[in-house]
Design brief:
Helices cover about 60% and strands about 15% of the residues. It is α+β, with helices and mostly antiparallel strands. It has 2 domains: about 140 residues; about 140 residues, 2-Layer Sandwich (Heat Shock Protein 90).
Amino acid sequence: MAEDDLRKSHDELEAINRQLEEAHNQLLQSEKMASIGQLAAGVAHEINNPIGYVYSNLGTLEKYVQDVFSMIDSYEQAEGMIADQEMRNQLQEARKKLDIAFLKEDLRALMSESKDGITRVKNIVQNLKDFSHVDTTDEWHFADLRMGLDSTLNIVNNEIKYKADVVREYGDIPDVECLPSQLNQVFMNLLVNAAHAIEERGTITVRTGQQGDEVWVEVADTGKGIAPENLKRIFDPFFTTKPVGKGTGLGLSLSFGIMRKHNGRIEVQSEAGKGTAFTLWLPVKHQVQE
């Protein structure tokens, strides 16, 4: 009897120790993601100022170039009025040597490409800010999940673009009371996992919709799917089917914890060889649990 009680106590202590270890590792992962968010926000802020004045200077430079071109056009029109034939020959030779027509065309193209490049950098910076929610405090507030999905898709684009085409099928949904930066972590985990599940070229479809007082977000891929025996374990900490060094096994576990914090849930449907679909369900208004 005493031996049975001792064994039972030992098993209970082991279970509690496992739970503590899981909680500790999830906390470490959450702190790691928060640090990444802060780093992204800091980088975005530091880049934003120089990008701002480079963009502004390019606009001014473009205007100056146009003014110079107008002046050159005026000189060309007045060239025929120059009486000195030798001077006219020198001007024509200089124009031919410099290839003014090409310079005009190429300068306009260079200015346009430079502005496009700076605009892309500005968009990347804005995506970093949106992803990390640097402009908001880490408090519950209403947010458009579609904006979070778009900024996250832009952030992980390099991970996806070589593996899959992304299809957005956004339905009308209301703003959801949430912690947006944490939900963006969930979106990122699902999108990166979807890309990794696709062995050759495939498709990742992102859908949104509403049912009653809940909003849902679905991330579906045409990847290799999840084996039936692994479906019940995918949310366990440290469980991963990826090769050693390719994954921590904490992504879905952390996502599960974030969804539970939001009084939401994650559903998964998968068929080996055909693909997987994760569906996130979230209440529109957050209810504080007693």
